[in-house]
Amino acid sequence: MATTNLPTLSQLISVEEYLKTHYRPDVDFVDGEIEERNVGEFDHADVQMAIGVFLRAQQQQWNIRVVPQVRVQISATRYRVPDICVIPGDWKREPIVRVPPLLCVEVLSPRDRLKRVHKRIQDFFDMGVLAVWILDPVTRTAYVCDREGMAPHREGTLLVEGTSISVPLEAIFSTLDE
C-alpha cells in the first residue's frame, strides 16, 4: 500500500485511490473528498482504549466483535472510520466492514465540533447502524444518538436496544482519574 500526504481540499480522488492508499491516521472518504479525523491526544486515546477494552472483554458473552478505527463502507462513495466499531459476532471477516454495525462510538477531541460529528452520525444511521455514542472526555458526557437527536448522559449505563450491550459510564470515564 502506498503512503501519501493528504490531498488538498479541492483535490478529488477516486474510491479506488482511497482504498489503495495508506493514511496515517486513517481518514474518512466522502464523495471523492478526504476528511481528516481528529485523533492523537491523550484523553481521546485513553477513553477510546477504555471503551474498546470494556466491550472487547464482553465479545463472547454478547456475541459481538469490537474493533478500533476500521473502515466502514457507508455507500459506494462514502467510507467512515469510527473510533470503535461493534459488529455482530457472526460477521464474515473482510478488510472493510460493509454490514451495518450494531454500534459506532466516536470520542471527541478538543478540536471536534458537534456539527461535523452530526454528518458522521447521519451517515451511520443511513447505513443502518443501530446505535451511535459520542463520548466527550472533557465534560465526561456520553451522547446517545438516534435519528431524532442526541441525549446527554453523565452517569448511568449506556445500552444498545435489542442487544446485550450495556456499558456503565463510570467504567469508561474513570480512566481519566488514573
UniProtKB/TrEMBL annotation:
Pfam families: Uma2. SUPFAM superfamilies: Restriction endonuclease-like. Keywords: Endonuclease, Hydrolase, Nuclease. GO terms for molecular function: endonuclease activity. CDD domains: DUF820-like. Residues 16-148 form the Putative restriction endonuclease domain. Coiled coil: none annotated. This is Endonuclease, Uma2 family (Restriction endonuclease fold). It comes from Granulicella rosea.
